[in-house]
Automatic annotation (TrEMBL):
It comes from Marinigracilibium pacificum. InterPro entries: NAD(P)-bd_dom_sf, SDR, SDR_fam. Belongs to the short-chain dehydrogenases/reductases (SDR) family. This is SDR family oxidoreductase. It comes from the Bacteria. The lineage of its organism: Bacteria, Pseudomonadati, Bacteroidota, Cytophagia, Cytophagales.
Amino acid sequence: MEISLKGRRALVCGSSRGIGKAIAIALAGSGASVLLMSRDKDKLKEVISVLDTTSGQEHDFIVADFNEPHLVEKRINKYLESGKNIDILINNTGGPSPGLAFESEPELYQKAFSAHLIVNQILLQATLPHMQNQQFGRIINIISTSVKAPIPGLGVSNTIRGAVANWSKTISVELAGFGITVNNILPGLTKTDRLKSIIKNKAESESVTFMEMEDRMMKSIPVGRFAEPEEIADTVVFLASNKASYINGVSLAIDGGKTPVQ
């Protein structure tokens, strides 16, 4: 099945590395123009240099830190004032630090809520008028399988991811009449820097080596391996296309069958 996103423009958050970078590359490879957003200017320049331009795509980037929502709002509005619009919004940002829910300070919850849900809302409201006017839009949130089954040791993340999932389901109903779909991707254990950090922390807490913990975690996955970021990205491309026009309000786990409740 060939998918073309030629003529579409996608905003991909957290696109300087990991899953976000893979999504940006895949969307560009399908013909979309891509607006990258991250706080790391140098890495954004590296990513934009490898994006496909063979279909006449025009790529750009915005430097913004999701811990400063007011600056995110200022910079996306400035970009949109240039006359360019966003057809596909990919909300994606790194998860909060590990820790037990009951031990986490309230400030950690506030910070995570702001960086995830509040920034998502800002970007939604900035890009929505164009989507409504053209009766087409795709909003895809990269969250976590913790939406289905909380992950031990990720108390703040489990809480905030759940909030984002319910926000997404709510707006999927509200916006469906405009030809806009809203869906969540729930990546399982995927080969990213964050996964390395999680493995390292778990290994230290259980007094085993990194390789022992890595092997133990892979064996917990029915397919016996971690996901590649590109496997998440391929699903995003499909959901962003016209071929997924009747998929709305779902939370899709891409986890090799690990999550017990789908």
